[in-house]
Design brief:
single chain, alpha/beta, Leucine-rich repeat, LRR (right-handed beta-alpha superhelix), 13% helix
């Protein structure tokens, strides 16, 4: 019994002990898993919160006792210590990172990326977090030098300082101390002043140094020497100048290699074929040359290949079809020629193909229809011909198709209407023909961007009540037949923002209700130029469009006064109303359009004075008021238009002194047209301060004085080189400059950059033609006719080697026509009539083709072809013959003299040595002498 009692007691005690242990263990686990954060760490976080501006309330959860439950905070479940602070993208602002963070002694993960620390410096105390393995300060607006003490973070594996362009590093040495570092991103950090380029840790697998201003000869630095673990490398946008970096080839395990947007040159080495792990290769935007190597197309693991914007040439190899894993292929902006290889159809995984801006020709292979995953196809700006293959319709996933600016022709397949995923369709600049009907758009419900042009051979023929399945945001149907009626289906497009229907055969009145609604609500750009459109209510529109930046209505039948509501469209940058029937005065309120860069009302009937308020448009670079009825003076406020490139006030009734400020105040001026006004005074020397001027037309005014000799300093005309007139404006059909340099009106648009012209005709300019004018070797047109110029035509006229048109007629020029005029091999129009020129007309070269006698009419002392022969010509020919005979005599006597001398010497020697010959010779001479004497003087010898 005692034994049983003892056993029971032991059992009860054991059970109690087990229960106690179990409860205790459970309490310990519970304490570990539900441990609240440390109080001083919580207070440190609250101090940090209070030092920051939290406009998005992302830290609203930072309340209560348990900071481990707060947003972005993670704690060690056993100790309750804060080990992770992740505030990525929290939208916080502040001018410092509060040092209260130092209480988070066990922090291993810190992410403050995508916030705004208002150009504060990275605090040095971050280097005290010995357990830190992850540090991300990217895109948070830090400034100044990166602290070298970050090199003390011996546990760091991930460091991202990307996207802080105001950061810089002056000493790269501290990075070599981070022996465990695996991921390093310094993109945007300025390394241009750095030194101590010690080798980076060999542990790095991902290295990103985009736009770091690396030294051009970075290859010679040891920084990349030990990167034996490298898997991903991005050195793009550093403008490095060297051949392909050979050290990269020693890292055969690299999977991602991005060297784009540098200035690498030469050829890609054959040994690149050893980099068999490559999945991404981006060499775009460099200066690489040569052919696509077979070694490149041997990299069969590639999923992304970009060699765009280089100078590769030759054919696209058939081996490109071996890269069957490719999802993205970009060969654009090179010099590839030949046809697209059919093997491209093997790239079954391809989602993006870009072949644009090369010299590819031939037809599009039907194998392209096998690219079942293709969503984007770009082959614009090539020389492709033929029609679109029916296999195009198999590209059921296609979203974007750019094939504009080729030589494609034929009709568009009706099955186009089955490409239900198409969003952007750009087909303009080809020779399409036939009819576009509803069938071509049947299932295109996602279409938002439509651009087609082809000339009059392509007609859009849809029923008047057609309602398209799509809602367009952008429509470009220029230079094809859409009219004659304004398309009703366009009125169903409620999302339209961009309308380009220039030269589309529309002859109609715009529906007022639609125009006002779309015009006021959504429209950003509209170009209806070169049609026969009218809208009588345009001047009565009252509500101002919101966001309109381009309005081009040139070459239509718009009439009435200037639409006053446009003065309230503050966003307007381009306004073209040329070649219409507008009347009245331009309002002063135009000065409100301070964003305006292009303003053109050429060929209307506007009158009154030019509003001085136009001088407020300080961004204006194209101002064309040509051929209206403006009178008065040129506003002095135009001096404020310092960005002006084109100023055309020609064919008005302006009465003013020639504006002396055009040179000094308008330094960018290239095209100045003031012809056909009543301007007077001298041409100011300040005009020579316009180094870019290439078209100067002051004809038909009352200008006096001399031609400034400083014209020889007009740099653009010396070099004959020009930049693009107005970038971003060439797509508008209304852009043009009218010049009358050849006696009739010429309109220049895309060829304007090649026009270098001076026209001072029909004024009262006196003096001589300055020799300095002959320095303008780029000059194409020169018209000084109808003035009072005197003196001679400069001998250096032949130096104007590009001259095509020269008119010096109706002046008082005298002397001979310089022979150097015949050196002008491009001269096609010449007029020297009605001067006092004399002498013979030069001949030879291009002058032989200018056979019109009127070229030289009114110069009574001129002769020679094509006028009458010169009187001195015959004498000159005779003298030439005499000279020829004289030359022949000289050669004759020169030839016989040595022989005569040798013969005479031999005869005399014979008489000296042979006595009988000597006696006989002198006896004969004496007998002959006596006979001659008797014959001449008979009386003297009579006996």
């Amino acid at each position: 019994m005692q034994k049983s009692t003892t056993s029971l007691l032991i059992l009860v005690c054991a059970f109690s002990l087990l229960s106690t242990l179990k409860f205790g263990y459970g309490s310990i686990v519970g304490a570990y898993s539900n441990k609240s954060c440390i109080e001083n760490e919580k207070q440190a976080l609250l101090i940090l919160k209070n030092s920051l501006i939290d406009e998005s309330n992302n830290l609203s959860s930072w309340v209560g006792d348990d900071c481990c439950a707060w947003h972005g905070i993670s704690c060690n479940k056993r100790t309750g210590r804060v080990i992770q602070l992740d505030l990525r993208g929290a939208g916080l602002k502040g001018d410092e990172i509060n040092s209260s963070l130092l209480h988070l002694k066990y922090l291993s993960y810190l992410d403050l990326s995508f916030n705004d620390f208002e150009e504060t410096r990275i605090p040095e105390f971050l280097s005290w977090f010995k357990d830190l393995t992850y540090l991300n300060l990217s895109n948070s607006n830090f400034k100044g030098l990166v602290p070298r003490h970050l090199g003390n973070l011996s546990s760091l594996r991930y460091l991202d300082l990307n996207g802080n362009p105001l950061l810089s590093i002056d000493d790269m040495g501290w990075l070599s101390k981070l022996s465990l570092l695996e991921h390093l991103d310094l993109s945007g950090v300025d390394l241009s002043g750095a030194n101590n380029w010690f080798p980076l840790p060999s542990s790095i697998t991902v290295l990103v140094m985009i736009n770091c201003h690396l030294p051009e000869k970075i290859d010679s630095y040891p920084i990349f020497m030990n990167l034996t673990s490298l898997v991903s490398l991005d050195l793009s946008y550093n403008y490095l100048k060297s051949s392909f970096p050979l050290w990269v080839l020693n890292n055969s395990d690299i999977e991602n290699l991005v060297l784009g947007s540098n200035q690498f040159n030469g050829q890609i080495p054959n040994s690149i074929e050893k980099m068999t792990s490559l999945t991404v290769l981006n060499l775009g935007s460099n200066n690489f040359q040569g052919l696509i190597l077979e070694s490149l197309v041997a990299l069969t693991s590639l999923t992304d290949l970009d060699i765009s914007h280089n100078s590769f040439q030759g054919f696209i190899p058939d081996g490109i079809g071996n890269l069957t894993s490719l999802s993205r292929l970009d060969l654009s902006f090179n010099g590839f020629r030949g046809s697209i290889p059919p093997s491209i159809g093997n790239l079954k995984s391809l989602s993006k193909l870009d072949l644009s801006s090369n010299k590819l020709n031939g037809s599009i292979p039907h194998e392209i229809g096998r690219l079942a995953e293709l969503t984007q196809l770009y082959s614009q700006t090539n020389e492709l011909s033929g029609g679109l293959p029916e296999s195009f319709c198999q590209l059921s996933k296609l979203k974007i198709l750019y094939i504009y600016d080729n030589h494609l022709s034929g009709s568009l397949p009706k099955c186009f209407g089955e490409l239900s995923n198409i969003e952007q369709l750009y087909l303009m600049g080809n020779a399409w023909e036939g009819i576009l009907s509803e069938h071509h758009f049947f299932s295109l419900s996602k279409l938002a961007y439509l651009a087609i042009s082809s000339g009059s051979n392509l007609v859009l023929n849809v029923s008047s009540n057609w309602v398209p399945p799509f809602q367009l945001r952008y429509i470009y149907l220029q230079s094809m037949t859409v009219g004659p009626k304004f398309p009703r289906w366009l009125q169903t497009q409620k999302q339209i923002s961009y309308i380009f229907l220039a030269n589309s055969g529309i002859s109609d009145i715009i529906p007022a209700d639609w125009f006002v609604s779309v015009f006021v609500s959504r429209l950003k750009s509209i170009d209806l130029s070169d049609n026969d459109i009218n809208f009588e209510g345009l001047s009565s529109v009252s509500a101002a469009p919101v966001g309109l930046n381009t309005l081009a209505l040139s070459n239509n039948r718009f009439s009435g006064e200037f639409p006053a509501f446009l003065c309230n469209v503050k966003s307007l940058s381009t306004l073209i109303l040329s070649n219409n029937k507008f009347t009245g005065e331009l309002p002063q309120c135009l000065g409100n359009l301070t964003e305006l860069t292009h303003f053109d009302v050429m060929n209307n009937s506007f009158s009154g004075e030019i509003p001085a308020a136009l001088g407020n448009l300080v961004h204006l670079n194209y101002l064309n008021l040509h051929n209206n009825s403006f009178h008065g003076k040129i506003p002095l406020s135009f001096q404020n238009l310092t960005e002006l490139v084109t100023l055309d006030l020609g064919k008005n009734n302006l009465n003013d002194n020639f504006p002396p400020w055009t040179g000094e105040q308008l330094p960018r001026l290239k095209y100045l047209i003031l012809r056909s006004n009543n301007l007077y005074g001298n041409i100011p020397a300040q005009l020579c301060s316009c180094p870019s001027i290439q078209l100067l037309n002051l004809a038909q005014n009352q200008i006096t004085g001399n031609i400034p000799s400083c014209f020889g300093n007009l740099i653009a005309m010396i070099e004959g080189e020009s930049e693009v007139l107005h970038p971003g404006f060439s797509y508008l059909s209304g852009q043009m400059i009218v010049d009358d340099a050849k006696g009739y009106e010429l309109r220049y648009t895309s060829t304007l950059g090649y026009l270098f012209s001076i026209d001072l005709s029909d004024n009262d300019i006196r003096g001589e033609i300055p020799e300095e004018l002959m320095d303008l070797g780029g000059l194409v047109n020169l018209d000084l006719s109808g003035n009072q110029l005197s003196g001679r035509i400069p001998e250096g006229i032949g130096e104007l080697s590009k001259l095509e048109y020269l008119d010096l007629s109706k002046n008082k020029l005298s002397g001979r026509i310089p022979q150097s005029l015949s050196d002008l091999s491009f001269l096609s129009r010449l007029n020297l009539s009605f001067n006092n020129l004399s002498g013979k007309i030069p001949t030879g070269n291009q002058l032989q083709t200018l056979e019109d006698p009127s070229i030289y009419a009114g110069n009574n002392n001129l002769c020679g072809q094509p006028l009458k022969s010169c009187i001195t010509d015959a004498k000159s020919d005779h003298r030439k013959d005499d000279t020829g005979s004289y030359d022949e005599h000289i050669w004759f006597y020169t030839g016989i003299s040595p022989g005569f001398f040798v013969g005479l010497l031999g005869f005399c020697a014979s008489l000296y040595f042979i006595d009988s010959w000597r006696l006989s010779y002198f006896y004969s001479v004496e007998r002959v002498s006596e006979k001659i004497a008797i014959a001449l003087f008979p009386r003297k010898f009579q006996y």
